[in-house]
Design goal:
binds glycine, globular, binds adenosine monophosphate, 12 helices, five-stranded antiparallel beta sheet, alpha+beta, about 30% helix
Length: about 425
């Protein structure tokens, strides 16, 4: 079966790497891909949000399954368009993807169906937000309701900070129209974990749990980013936590979506805070996490294409999923300036060839002649396997030390 992957990040390279091991794979196309995916399939230049182009490629290349990496094309309705055209695609419809693309919608749904999450209020008026925040004396988190590349969340130390955050988002529109509405919520305390489920309506399969590192700097300092590294599995998600997440979060959310007429198919990503009162939802994503996918898929022994095909065909319960018992750790190397504006076109040296226990996934990279150069904020996801987390960590950082590009930033404390 010919497969089209939409996107150009480390997640998409990791998807392609896993798909390459799938027995049923024919040709692999990536729209638009990066220098890493070009080694595994054919990159098709273009905008990943150009739905008409994606459809045209799928028709022209006789694509049997399209897999959508990023959230923007999902929110823009790529799945609706493919389904209307009778083409198989893995991902939720735009209406179901609102779980990610509209944090106010997600909050209301969770409130209505008693899914554990931070208490929150929703505002589109700055003055009302200001008055509300001024009455709070505990720390709050201010979030742009719309899509802001994982950067639209400001964790505030005190009300003065939070009022400033509300003003930046609602009035100054630092996140553009994504900030036309904000969610002001209680700050939860605990450790964070990412749990991803492959979902077909009521049926779901939970992938191995992972841990992301959203802050730019060591010791969780600095601004929030799209994610600076991940490992899988995580000891934080015990069997007991898994059961709680299943019964209190995953099953109720999927049921709620069915009842609201928005049955979910695709990956549902649960960003969780493991609080003293049990796991609570920080956010939903409607796709594989990045960089979580790099660590998770590195451990997937089963056939990814078969798993995703089973979800699309509604026979998820028939597939058996096997995992490599080793630990995986992914270190993101980012451009100077990330998560703000970055310079691109910087040559990358010292890239090692893929090995059984380590792969450097490309994110923002591009090939120019004989060289691979930087082409975005997050550049590489250096991912290694090891018998223990410490081994995976040692191996990944060994490779990081060999790779050089000017201004590279990465965390040195992942998995420590
Ligand atoms: P989100 O994009 O909603 O996951 O938020 C990004 C990051 O902000 C999360 O990974 C958390 O570290 C932090 N965060 C979001 N919401 C809360 C909350 N209610 N309490 C504490 N931290 C939060
Ligand atoms: N790593 C967080 C995300 O994919 O949104």
């Amino acid at each position: 079966m010919n497969v089209l992957v939409i996107g150009s990040g480390g997640r998409e390279h990791a998807l392609c790497h896993a798909l390459r091991r799938s027995r049923g794979l024919g040709r692999l196309l990536i729209l638009p891909g990066n220098a890493g995916t070009a080694e595994l399939g054919t990159n098709v230049p273009g905008d990943p949000c150009d739905i008409a182009l994606a459809l045209e490629v799928a028709r022209r290349e006789d694509v049997g399954l399209t897999i959508v990496g990023p959230e923007e094309p999902l929110a823009a309705g790529i799945v609706d368009a493919f389904e209307a055209a009778g083409r198989r695609i893995f991902g939720p419809t735009a209406a179901a993807a609102r779980l990610e693309s509209d944090k106010a919608f997600a909050k209301q749904l969770m409130r209505q169906y008693a899914v554990p999450t931070a208490d929150a209020r929703i505002f589109d008026d700055y003055e009302l937000a200001r008055q509300y925040i001024a009455t709070r004396d505990e720390a709050v988190v201010v979030k742009a309701a719309g899509l802001a590349k994982g950067k639209g969340v400001i964790v505030c130390a005190d009300p003065a900070d939070a009022i400033l955050a509300a003003e930046r988002i609602l009035v100054q529109r630092v996140f553009g129209e994504a900030g036309a509405r904000i969610v002001v919520e209680e700050r939860l305390l605990g450790r964070e974990a990412s749990l991803l489920a492959v979902v077909d309506r009521h049926t779901s399969y939970l992938l191995e749990p992972a841990q992301d590192h959203k802050r730019l700097g060591d010791g969780d300092s600095g601004p929030n980013t799209g994610g600076m590294g991940a490992f899988c599995p995580t000891p934080l998600v015990t069997e007991a936590v898994l059961r709680q997440v299943q019964t209190q979060i995953l099953v109720p959310v999927l049921d709620a979506l069915v009842r609201e007429g928005l049955p979910y198919r695709g990956v549902l990503y649960l960003g969780l805070m493991l609080t003293a009162a049990g796991p609570k939802v920080l956010e939903f994503n409607c796709r594989f996490g990045d960089p979580e996918a790099q660590a998770i898929l590195m451990r997937l022994e089963s056939d990814l294409l078969e798993l995703l095909n089973a979800a699309v065909d509604g026979r998820l319960e028939q597939v058996e999923v096997r995992w490599d018992p080793r630990h995986a750790l992914c270190v993101v190397m980012a451009s100077a300036g990330y998560p703000e504006a970055v310079r691109t076109g910087v040559p990358i040296r010292g890239l090692p060839p893929p090995a059984d226990d380590a792969v450097v996934f490309h994110a923002g990279t591009r090939r120019v002649g004989d060289e691979v150069v930087t082409a975005g904020g997050r550049v590489l996801g250096v991912t290694a396997l090891g018998p223990t987390l410490a081994d995976a960590r040692r191996r990944a950082y060994e490779l990081v030390a060999q790779i050089r590009f000017e201004g590279a930033q990465y965390r040195t404390d992942l998995g420590a």
